[in-house]
Amino acid sequence: MKLGKAIGTIGSLTLVSRVLGFAREMVMARVLGANMFADAFLVAFRLPNTFRRFFGEGAFSAGFVPLFGQRYHGEGGIDEARRFSAEVLAIFLPALLVFTLIGQIAMPALVWLLASGFAGDAEKFDLTIWLSRLTFPYLMLISLVSLFSGLLNSMHRFAAAAFAPALLNLAMLVALLLVREGGPKTAEALSIAVVIGGIVQLGLVWWSARRAGISLKLRRPRITPGVRQFFKVVIPATFAAGVYQISILIDTQFVSYLAEGSMAHLNYADRLNQLPLGIIGTALGTAILPSISKYVDQGNPQEAERIQNQAIDIGMLLTLPAAIAFAAAGVPLVTALFRGGEFTAEDAVVTGTTLAIIALGLPAYVLVKVFTPGFFAREDTKTPLRIALWVLAANIAMNFALVPFYGLYGLAIALMLTAWLNCALLYITLNRRGHFSLSPEVLRRVSRQILAGLAMG
User: Fold this and answer.
1) In sequence order, what are the residues at sequence separation of 6 or more whose Cβ sits closer than 8 angstroms to the Cβ of residue 447?
2) How many CB atoms lie within 10 A of CB 418?
3) Digit-coded pLDDT (tens) for 403-443
4) What is the pLDDT of residues 391-405, one digit of tens each?
5) Is the dihedral of CA 80, 86, 87, 88 positive or negative?
6) Residue 261 phi, psi dihedral angles, 5° rounding
7) What is the value of pTM for the model shown?
8) DSSP element (H, E) containing 381
9) What value does the mean pLDDT take over residues 282-290?
10) For residues 284 and 276, is the Cβ–Cβ distance under 8 A?
11) What's the Cα-to-Cα distance from 273 to each of 187, 387, 419, 457, rounded to whole Å?
């Protein structure tokens, strides 16, 4: 696999999704603003996204991609890989159905768990529960998207999985343009659009998998040797993802007690911060995991290390300028892009300052995406879990220390610092085990990139 070509494919298609997502946020800022309705929808949207990371995406890929790749590149070939995928789906789908049903029944408790600060306002709390019930089926849909995306990525077919999120953003953008009066009606339309977007995403990756020769048939759930191996790898990764989601849950709890609109301010700032992270960090992590897994399986760790160094070089070249630009010009950038309609000048100042703070952690987020495949490729998901626990403890401590004095800005500082802590712990662990070392050449180039970025800032 050509790393540059894979990153280009994933990054360019992710760019389409991020641009649509950015357009969605611009329209949402003007239509909904930063108020009770925006806060309620954002919590409702965050709820399935929080739980999907327990069942899909990072945790699922950490267990599925290396094991699928072993079978696909091994003696059994595509037939063995197809059989393994069907066995995992047979367990995965019923679990998702049961969890989705339980979630609908227990929605008031789930909303309180995520944003108990809303409970003081009965109208806001009830609206959040209703919107959450509308969005929650998205959990099952996007988790299945993760399964099909994982097998496509393992076959180095990155296009469909990279483009799929664009369909969600497009569905939500259409809802905003069709229901423009704001308030609860627009929030409801957005919530319904989330589920429609999930259905279309699943259709795309399912069709792409069929074209690639992987047609999965539903079968009776059985704990096969392959499923046992999958659980052995994915359960620690799920706990690691769970630790990260607990961190997000705690952050959301803190924000729910801040001034009305704080949830929206953080969301709009994070949307800008996620633009380079999604295009660069996600593309890098997705592109290098199958290749690192292959070289580790072949007993060629030097080539795996070379790929990670190359990923760092590319990632920092593209990320450092973005991070410094956001930090230097956060407020004017947010003012130019979001101000208008229901989004006021004061909203722009709060959002822009929050962006300037969290953007300083952007390079760390990208480096984490590069370092974690070094563990996952070796079927080691326990070490990232242990590191995640330390980072969670640090994040909680910093929130309690900073938020009471600095509000939303204190939470942003904690997010930025814990990102660098996570990055440092992952690198130190890989380095001590002899699995990865930053090459002198890459170190020199990154040093020059930092100096040039600071001069630009």
Assistant:
1) none
2) 23
3) 999 999 999 999 999 999 999 999 999 999 888 888 899 89
4) 988 999 999 999 999
5) positive
6) 100, -10
7) 0.69
8) none
9) 70
10) no
11) 24, 23, 13, 17
Report the distance separating Cα 256 and Cα 411, nearest Å. 12
What pLDDT digit, counting tens, does each position of 340-367 carry? 887 888 989 999 999 999 999 999 988 8
Q: Which residues contact 117 (CB under 8 A, 6 or more apart)?
A: 253, 255, 256, 257, 258
Burial (0-12, 13-18, 19+ Cβ within 10 Å), 156: middle
The radius of gyration computed from the CA coordinates of the chain, to the nearest angstrom, equals 21
Q: How far is 54 from 366, CA to CA, in rounded Å? A: 21
State residue 343 phi and psi, 5-degree precision: -95, 110
And the tokens for 237? Answer: 């990764």
- C-alpha to C-alpha distance for 430 and 311, rounded to whole angstroms: 15
Name the burial class of residue 332, with classes exposed (0-12), middle (13-18) and buried (19+) by CB atoms within 10 angstroms of its CB. exposed
* Per-residue model confidence as pLDDT tens digits over 303-328: 888 888 888 888 888 889 989 999 99
C-beta separation of 377 from 304 below 8 A: yes
Model confidence band, residue 185 (pLDDT cutoffs 50, 70, 90): very high
88 vs 236, higher pLDDT: 88
170 in Cβ contact with 197 (< 8 Å): yes
Token pair, residue 241, equals 């993802």
Alpha carbon distance 449, 316 (integer Å): 8
Q: With beta carbons less than 8 A apart as the criterion, state whether 148 and 206 touch.
A: yes
What's the rounded mean pLDDT across residues 85-104? 86
Query: What is the distance between the alpha carbons of residues 134 and 387, in angstroms, rounded to a whole number?
Result: 35
Phi and psi, residue 292, nearest 5°:
-65, -40
First to last CA, the chain: 36
The band of 160, judged by pLDDT with boundaries at 50, 70 and 90, is confident
Under a CB-based contact definition with an 8 Å cutoff, are residues 32 and 342 in contact?
yes
Q: What is the mean pLDDT of residues 221-232?
A: 77
Neighbours of 123 (CB within 10 A): 11
